[in-house]
Amino acid sequence: MKKLFIFSMDSIFNRNLELTINKNEYMLVYPNINNLMLYSYAIKNNTNYIIIHSSFLNKNYQYIDMLISMKKYIVIYISNNLEYGFLYNALNSSYFHMMNDKYLSSINEIIPLMEKNTKILCSLETELVELKNKMEEERLVKKAKLLLMKKYSLTEDEAYKLILKRAMDDRVSKMIVAKNIIKEVEK
Questions:
Q1: Which CATH number is associated with domain 2-124?
Q2: What is the pTM of this model?
Q3: 52 pairs with which residues across the strands?
């Protein structure tokens, strides 16, 4: 059973959520805290999802940014006035989802979709970081090869083999060797 932490000051919203949510799949927890304690409470308690109703935040949107920066919870912000401008940073996170109050009746279908989308987006973010690192490594190796070719009159193949040999001998990546070569040659 998945825990949903609900932060809301709206009793009508809370009642509608209680009537709507699949209690076989989700356990609703209503922590009795104020919005200043939201971040520290989230750190201390283990949950998969945090649902924040607009009535709880009282326009203190920085708490959402703080929760999302942890990359630990799926944060669902529910409001009848979707405040896109104030939540600009949050909207760029794969851990943040926003929905209008009027779609509360379909929350049992929406939460698994949000979870699936979060996993896909996190996977894509990881892949993007890996590709950027690979491109940076290729750029540095190419620069190091050019410097070696120029300074020692090596062919491109010889320069590359030298970088590979140093990487294997020192048991470090080609990127580290390339950075060191660039530092040495540009002195």
A1: 3.40.50.2300
A2: 0.68
A3: 7, 77
